[in-house]
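Reply to dn_fold:

You asked what the input looked like. This is it:
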Amino acid sequence: MLIRHEIGVSSGGGHVSLPEPAQVGPDFRDYSAAAARLWIDPQSFRRTLHLPPGCALELTSERDAISAIAPIRRSTARVDMFKAWVGAIDEDCLPDSPAARYWALPAEPWNGRRFRSADELSAAERDDIEAAGRAYIFGNSAAVASYREAIERTTGTFEVAVYVAQSVRIAPGAVLRVTGAPAVLLFADLEIVDGGQLLIQTVCRAAIGRLTKTDAATARR
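and this is what came back:
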């Protein structure tokens, strides 16, 4: 059984660059609470996705690609909402924690400058907002709270792709990739048989109701 993270791809749309997914997921937290934050009733989605041995499928938001589960798109102009969808929990990123130390912080708090677009900012100011955006979403937001409005103004809209399924099973040799825009996996039941792979290639929060790891011998019985 393997859940592997690879370098993610930015979904564009602003100055907040996305980090390596290995820093942010999956966290296997409260399934029902994650669904509620996204205004989704999991009981309304009875989708079953079972990958047979050797099968390769993709969960993606790219419009010219085929996704094994159609994404439900959610967007917000509020960075705090986006953080709740795919970011880190502040309590997990206390000042002395590895997660808090990972993200470089701007040298100074935001200067309070008002602006209409990022074009009005200096290169140094844009760099500070970008760094603050990463730290705000994937670290402890309190450390860069003065940048919140600047992050929202330069980014515009934050978007996620949500993939909902009642049951997902990945057989030996099968690969399920998650790519494209920042993603949320809402799976009531996820079974990964030894030799199957779930590859995360974008920022991703996984909220799993029940995770089962099965060895190949047991799966054949």
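The chain has two domains: 1-76+157-221, 78-156.
Hope that clears it up.
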